[in-house]
UniProtKB/TrEMBL annotation:
Gene: zwf
Pathway membership, UniProt: Carbohydrate degradation; pentose phosphate pathway; D-ribulose 5-phosphate from D-glucose 6-phosphate (oxidative stage): step 1/3
GO biological process: glucose metabolic process; pentose-phosphate shunt, oxidative branch
Binding locations of substrate: H178, K182, E216, D235, K340, K345
Domain Glucose-6-phosphate dehydrogenase C-terminal: 190-487
One GO MF term: NADP binding
UniProtKB keywords: Carbohydrate metabolism, Glucose metabolism, NADP, Oxidoreductase
Protein name per UniProt: Glucose-6-phosphate 1-dehydrogenase
InterPro entries membership: G6P_DH, G6P_DH_AS, G6P_DH_C, G6P_DH_NAD-bd, NAD(P)-bd_dom_sf
Substrates-to-products reaction catalysed: D-glucose 6-phosphate + NADP(+) = 6-phospho-D-glucono-1,5-lactone + NADPH + H(+)
Lineage, highest ranks first: Bacteria, Bacillati, Bacillota, Bacilli, Bacillales
């Protein structure tokens, strides 16, 4: 494959995302020789930085990775900085001029990627001015990479989409969901569609329920301003959790082509049952962390964190049940739960298979067959495990659950900052498979709006849970009502 030739323009180059994720990821690509020398990065921001300052910052953000000095020096010389005012046309003209000059210098064939790594209120303005001021007129490709939040509800998302679609075609819009860059999230499809033993069972005849957990130990940290308006539902469920549901529920695509895969995911999202306000109260639980003990340390509750309203009703935890109404899935609950300040940092998918029609091992020792469980370990460990029943040692026979484990230690997670590296590379190659299509975003928001509207009408149904726990009691009750329980993920 030919290495990508492109100029990457980062809006928000002095910010946290650029420093923590983007610079290290681009460097990793460079280090692995996946980038040719035909690339440049232009950082934009309000701060009066210079090329020298951005280069120092790039170096600082990468140094901890223990890198070869010479390579790092060559790398950072590809960086440029332009002080930028997103509302001022003059800034766009200066940018265009710089891009034309770098295009010649680095022979990037007019290819430009615009990466929005800043406050979302400017996404629309930037996209439309890039077009109106001619920055998107080149002989190569122009792509837009856009970070979340993609709107705040369905109408704001539609409005944002209209604004960016006026300047970029859908095929050139790369909406980031960093979960789609995770190795094991990408592996869901391979496990399902590359193995003869799972796909025949992957339906409501053999699966009883699916449990997706993404728990975090961190609290809201310094993101109170953003999080108060978002909460766990918009922050995690609208995007990451529903994307995992779609990948688990979709039908096999006819081939590995971005459009085919995305259209199957869209169909799966479309099949999720739209529920009524009453059903929201029954199927969804919201919680907020109180103080508690985490890893032996006392931590404050959400209400005492910085920039949080003292009577805030923002949820930091959601558990819920999505029902998919199609032939494959009707009757199988897809449970999701996600929250901050929980007992572990972990993302796991557990597929619980149905019980056999009868258990011949049920004997006087009260041996019960354990359900077969397939666990996809997304993070921090990456792998797959399968719980089966085996023979119990000893004269009385009986059965005992045994676990087969596959641990995917192939790729060090240190070198793949949360999938950004893969996603940036995909965008440079023009592969949109692991980015969310507008239809997916819109369908997800419709589901989320139903839930949040129902909650708004009933502000007090927020349960407090202790920091360091696995969430409020209602989360366990949600599964217990259906005769299930959350399988441990620790
Ligand atoms: C982000 C959310 O999208 O995902 C954060 O905004 C959350 O609140 C993060 O902490 C979790 O990502 P990961 O990769 O650490 O599971």
């Amino acid at each position: 494959i030919e290495e990508p030739k492109t100029i990457l323009v980062i809006f928000g180059a002095t910010g946290d995302l650029a420093k923590r994720k983007l610079y290290p990821s681009i460097y990793n690509l460079y280090k692995k020789d996946m980038l040719s020398d035909n690339f440049a990065v232009v950082g934009l921001g309000r701060k009066p930085w210079t090329n020298e300052i951005i280069r120092e910052n790039v170096q600082k953000s990468i140094q901890s990775e223990g890198n070869d000095e010479e390579k790092l020096n060559d790398f950072k010389d590809h960086f440029y900085y332009l002080p930028f005012d997103v509302t001022n046309k003059q800034s766009y003209h200066e940018l265009d001029e710089l891009l034309n000059q770098l295009d010649e210098q680095y022979q990037t064939e007019g290819n430009r990627i615009f990466y929005m790594a800043m406050a979302p209120e400017f996404f629309g303005t930037i996209a439309s001015q890039l077009k109106s001021e001619g920055v998107t007129e080149t002989k190569g490709y122009t792509r837009l990479v856009i970070e979340k939040p993609f709107g705040h509800n369905v109408s704001s998302a539609q409005q944002l989409n209209e604004e960016i679609s006026a300047a970029f075609a859908e095929k050139d819009i790369y909406r980031i969901d960093h979960y789609l860059g995770k190795q094991m999230v990408q592996n869901i499809e391979v496990i399902r569609f590359g193995n003869a033993i799972f796909e025949p069972l992957w339906n409501n005849r053999y699966i009883s329920n699916i449990q997706i957990t993404s728990s975090e130990t961190l609290g809201v940290e310094d993101r109170g301003g953003y999080y108060e308006k978002s909460g766990a539902l918009r922050d995690m469920v609208q995007n990451h959790m529903l994307q995992m549901v779609a990948l688990l529920a979709m039908d096999p695509p006819i081939k590995l082509d971005p459009d085919e895969i995305r259209s199957e995911k869209i169909k799966a999202l479309r099949s999720i049952k739209n529920i009524s306000t009453d059903e929201v109260q029954e199927h969804f639980v919201r919680g907020q962390y109180g103080p508690g003990l985490q890893n032996g340390n006392e931590v404050p509750g959400y209400l005492s964190e910085n920039n949080i309203a003292p009577n805030s009703h923002t949820e930091t935890f959601v558990a819920g049940k999505f029902m998919i109404e199609n032939h494959r899935w009707v009757g199988v609950p897809f449970y999701i739960r996600t929250g901050k300040r929980m007992s572990v940092k972990s993302t796991k998918i557990i597929v619980q298979f149905k019980d056999l029609p009868m258990n011949i091992y049920y004997n006087k020792n009260k041996d019960e067959l354990h359900p077969n469980l397939l666990t996809i370990h997304i993070q921090p460990d990456e792998g797959v495990s399968l719980v089966l029943n085996g023979k119990k040692q000893g004269p009385n026979g009986g059965s005992i659950p045994v676990q087969l484990d596959y641990n995917n230690n192939g790729e060090s997670t240190v070198n793949t900052p949360e999938g950004y590296e893969r996603l940036i590379y995909d965008c440079m190659k023009g592969d949109a498979t692991n980015f969310t299509h507008w239809d997916e975003v819109e369908l997800s928001w419709k589901l989320i709006d139903t839930i949040s509207n129902a909650w708004e009408g009933n502000g007090n149904n927020l349960e407090t849970y202790e920091s360091g726990s696995m969430g409020p009691k209602g989360s366990d009750a949600l599964l217990a009502k259906d005769g299930f329980k959350w399988w441990p993920i620790e």
